[in-house]
Amino acid sequence: MRKDTNNFIKSAEYDLNTAEFMLKLGNIQLPLELFNFMAKINNASIVTRYPEDFLKILEAYPKSVAEEYLSNTKEIHECLKKHKTLKK
């Protein structure tokens, strides 16, 4: 396996484990739609971090998709800020 690929996989696994730990620790119940979005945006990070063809990225993630992703990310952020366990 290429070194950069291996590094990316290890980084992604770390990020996922951290997110899962935080959800369990805080017993945070996100709406299923937002939880599914977190998986979706994590998968998107692969192609946006390491684009082989920038034009393909623009086609796959037009402004409307970017706006949707931003809106969902802000919604998750607000849910986390309001969670009483995370305020301590």
TrEMBL record:
- Protein name in the entry: HEPN domain-containing protein
Q: Which organism is it from?
A: Candidatus Infernicultor aquiphilus
Q: What is the lineage of its organism?
A: Bacteria, Pseudomonadati, Atribacterota, Candidatus Phoenicimicrobiia, Candidatus Pheonicimicrobiales
